[in-house]
Design brief:
Helix content: 40-55%
Mean pLDDT: 56
Pfam family, one: Myb_DNA-binding
Number of strands: 4
Region (Disordered): 228-252
Largest sheet: 2 strands, antiparallel
Strand content: under 5%
InterPro entries: Homeodomain-like_sf, Myb_dom, Myb_TF_plants, SANT/Myb
Order of helices and strands: HHHHHHEEHHEEHHHH
Number of helices: 12
Radius of gyration: 26 Å
Structural class: mainly alpha
Domain Myb-like: 9-61, 62-112
Strand order of the largest sheet: 1-2
Distance between the termini: 66 Å
Oligomer: single chain
GO cellular component, one term: nucleus
Length: 338
DNA sequence: AAGCACACCAACCGCGTCCTC
DNA sequence: GGAGGACGCGGTTGGTGTGCT
């Protein structure tokens, strides 16, 4: 025979906690410690289920809970940990002191998830989405681009100069288009674009990429779908990589992610001037297109030429360039239909 | 000012694992 | 060893606040 049942008595209160109930719970735990949740409500004089008491304590009353908005560093850490651990909110929470799994889960669902979707990142896989639903944003950006050029600075809701707004909208639109083209053709890996500073220009102005997904140190494949982290390699160079599903593996993985995250923070600090998140490579012509076939190259260069015209063009004639770009994009990235 | 839509988040629910008997 | 409850976790819901029309 097991233990007596918990929470099966009818008449236990549900719903929001009152200040009096909070007081009773805090008072009891401060005097007696947590003990067993099953018997705690009775001893504390609460008409609540033990489960409800545990939740209230863990998510709200615990004295070490950190309140307030998540910092950018915390947000970045959550993203990186989620890319390795998935929806293991409790495990993620162990790396964010003072934050509860519930709070992180809520923040993910209400903020981060939406941000990633808007950027064309699949929040589940942390890879660029292969569908084109996020292209809905293109029409909105296009509308904003056109609208802001006709707006005076005084009526701009963002309080920005109209041309600045226009450029921001244009740049974001270009980024989206680049993502689409990269997705479609798999010729240029621009990495996940949601990290500030994940694209670095070296001295030769060639695009280099920092990928936020945890990777095997030896063969640089993502850990999430790589044998290095799904089983121990027979190769001696991989012998220290452990097996997923174990605490050890999760610790190893998250430690690597934290290390990685610190590197990213360093990169971000070095690129303090970079405000916009991972827009296009500053010089698309010099990006590494070594795998391109000739046809694609030709189409790509035409597209870049159209972009150049577009970016240099400040008057209303740019509308024709938009059409040109969109046409070129749709032909070079064939699956897209406008 | 009222009504509506959306965002946020505390709390509940259900399930899997652990633990006790 | 097995039955069954406790615990912890992740998914979901519903109440409340806020902004927009």
């Amino acid at each position: 025979m097991g233990r007596p049942p918990c929470c099966n008595e009818s008449g236990v209160k549900k719903g929001p906690w009152t200040p009096e109930e909070d007081e009773k719970l805090m008072d009891y735990i401060s005097k007696h410690g947590r003990g067993t949740w099953r018997t705690l409500p009775m001893h504390a004089g609460l008409n609540r289920c033990g489960k409800s008491c545990r939740l209230r304590w863990e998510n709200y009353l615990r004295p070490d809970i950190k309140r307030g908005r998540f910092t950018e560093e915390e947000e970045q850490l959550i993203i990186n940990l989620h890319s390795v651990l998935g929806n293991k909110w409790a495990k993620i929470a162990t790396h964010l002191p003072g934050r509860t799994d519930n709070e992180i889960k809520n923040y993910w669902n209400t903020n981060i998830r939406k941000k990633l979707l808007q950027m064309g990142i699949d929040p589940e896989t942390h890879k660029q989405r292969t569908d084109f639903n996020h292209l809905v944003n293109l029409s909105q950006l296009l509308g904003m681009s056109n609208l802001s050029t006709s707006m005076s600075p005084w009526t701009n809701p963002l309080g920005l100069q109209a041309d600045v707004t226009t450029q921001l909208a244009k740049l974001q639109l270009l980024q989206n288009m680049l993502q689409v083209m990269n997705n479609t053709n798999s010729l240029v890996n621009v990495g996940n674009p949601y990290l500030l500073g994940n694209q670095i220009l070296n001295g030769t102005n060639t695009l280099q990429v920092e990928d936020p997904v945890l990777r095997c140190k030896e063969c640089v494949k993502p850990a999430s779908n790589h044998p290095c982290l799904s089983q121990t390699h027979s190769d001696s160079s991989h012998q220290n990589i452990s097996i997923p599903g174990t605490e050890k593996e999760n610790e190893t993985a998250t430690q690597e992610v934290i290390g990685y995250n610190q590197n990213i923070v360093t990169i971000q600090q070095n690129q303090a001037e970079n405000i916009l998140p991972a827009l296009v490579a500053s010089c698309p012509r010099t990006s590494t297109f070594s795998q391109m076939d000739n046809n694609y190259k030709a189409a790509q260069m035409s597209t870049f030429e159209a972009w150049e015209k577009f970016l240099l063009d400040d008057d209303e004639t740019s509308g024709s360039h938009w059409k040109e770009i969109l046409d070129l994009t749709s032909t070079s990235a064939s699956p897209i239909s406008w």
